[in-house]
Amino acid sequence: MSTTTQIAPQSPFKRWLSGVTNSSDLGMLPVIAALILIWIVFEVLNANFLTPRNLSNLAAQIVVTGTLALAEIYIILLGMIDLSIGWNSVLAASIFSLSTVFFHLPVAAGLVLGVACATGIGFLQGMLVSRVGVPSFVVTLGGAMVAEGVTLGILTPHGGSVPLADDLTTAIGTLNLDPVWSWVASILLFGAYAGLTLNSIRKRKAGGSEGGYAAVMRLVGVGVLLFGAVFMLNAYRGVPFLLLIFLIALFASAFVTKSTRFGRHLYAVGGNAEAARRAGISVKGIQLAVFVIAGFLVGLAGYLDAARLGVASASVGNGDIMLNAVAAAVIGGTSLFGGRGSVYGALFGALVIESVSNGMNLLGAASSVRFIVEGGILLAAITIDTVLRMKRMRSGRA
Asked: Which Gene Ontology terms cover its molecular function (predicted)?
């Protein structure tokens, strides 16, 4: 007489949790956990950290780092690196300020010139990488040096900085959306994200797979995060215009990378360029397009930085703007080995970097301590990425 043991079916949540526990690709779960821990620590040390006023300041602070990290993520998804994003953004801001202040061009024309300059640099660097085969590290390092020289050349005669004079840029950099419009904008953004998520769920096989459950959980998490943030920001002065522009760029990038053929090809090229070429994908075309897109985002970041500071200054390039952007991209879960990561990592990575900086400033800590903490977080992120990649290799899924 034989007996058979029936295994009780697991709930979707248990299947998802089991998948996360045994997964070799944790995505952004580590950075979200780190962000929550950082916020708890700083709130315990200083009760002003999670106040609406400080969160509003933090929301404005993450914009430039997040936009540059978004540009860097595109490049890293290819398995490459861009070291020129810092100085290229400063150069774009300098061209905008000079054209509007000294040549009295309209704001739109100055913005187009600045962004076009950064986009053109991205195109030239992309040509050298994709067509000539020069390593991206060398190309972008040289590009950063050239951009630094040009920026110093055009700003030094004006004392190294040019204050902005137009009211529109000042408003974008300093003002906030009315609370009512903050809710409207958040609902529209969440609606767009929900539409993409539900469309991806419909494409999955029937039967309620773990992947579909995970997608629903991400949808709920994004809703809680987005509407919770709007509630807190409205308790002070509303959503900063700067943050709205960044979120639009973020969600647009999410659509491009997750819901288009170009996005699928991007991940394929980053995962295995030779296999992508054999599958008929234009590897060189994808690489060139990625550098152009990154250049556009770098130009946008330059404008947003100038709007936030009210000045285009060469001293910005001498800071840690590039290092923070690269760190935010990696901390946000983008694999340095290419082919894995999400553009949403730009938001969470920037939040980690700027939360540490903001919290340290509230505590009056020295800059040396901030660099040590940020460096430790970056090393932890890279270590996790490397360990998970080794796990994928052993399981044949690298």
From this structure: transmembrane transporter activity
- The dihedral built from the CA positions of residue 149, 370, 29 and 79, taken in this order, carries a sign that is positive
The answer to whether the CB of 90 falls within 8 A of the CB of 312 is yes
pTM attached to this predicted model? 0.88
Summarize pLDDT for 169-228 with one digit per residue, the tens.
Answer: 888 888 898 889 999 988 988 888 888 777 766 765 544 444 566 677 778 878 888 888
pLDDT per residue as tens digits for the range 11-23? 554 554 454 444 4
